[in-house]
Amino acid sequence: MDKSACKEAFSGVYSALFTAYDDEGKVSPERLRALIEFQLERGLRGAFITGSTGEGLLLSMDERKLVAETAVAALKGRGISIVHVGHLATDGAVELARHAESIGADMVGTIPPIYYPVGNEGVLQYYRTIAESVSLPVLIYNIPDKTGVTLTDELWLELFAVDNLIGMKYTGSDLYYMRNIIELLEGKALVLSGSDELCLPALTMGADGSIGTTQNIAPEWFVKIRELFLTGDIHQARELQYEVNRLIKYWLAHGRLAGCKATAAVRGVPVGGVRAPLPPLTEEEGAAMTEFAREFFGVPG
Fold first, then answer.
1. pLDDT tens-digit map of 253-268
2. 266 pairs with which residues across the strands?
3. Residue 167 sits in a domain of what CATH number?
4. Which member of 126, 141, 170, 250 is catalytic?
């Protein structure tokens, strides 16, 4: 697989897509399609499906497949679909990867093995097995703070030798580490940043785009940040990053993921709550987040 061509083909700004629920807490294909339409209209390149923000590890296999089927179909011909297939068991990840390929996804991605300490050889074998099970490009979801797995330089070189493993989504604040990986892999790897508050700094350190939670509700900010960066207008890009960071700071303090999902309703695309054990919004958090979001987006109360 031509990795430099993949880097060019998949650069851009993506949402870490919410999984939308109905009022009873069941996956809602209708709400999911409306959310994707909202994002495409505002310039997103596509979506990262059933990842951390998509609560993928809290969904059943059937629910993960339903979300993937709905999102891939909605994006087909208009946006790029990256399906997260991470699973505690390698066989589960392979099943999800093969399903993603069968429904026409453009790429799959996965966190490394979690909970059981399997060492570098176990991590390598996990990714090799998934990559060999499909012909799609494979993205490493590198989120060490959540997985407890830090990939060494030696392991990166072995992983990148896998034919269809093309790069990573990096969610972390150590942009020195991110840059070292870019240089280690000779600039051929696709690198998408996952820390929304560091979107612009990551671009200046060589990221090809971003995948993030806040891109669900404020996609146009991140699209514009990247456009301004590419045209050299760092000052205006910085101002937009500062502005959207105020939104990020607020939803992190008022319900975290549940708070961010509540904001979607303010923009006209309700997506429901969160799946237990993630904490739901308190009444006070919900009211505060809604009031702030209305002011931020200029939506009348």
1. 999 999 999 999 999 9
2. none
3. 3.20.20.70
4. 141
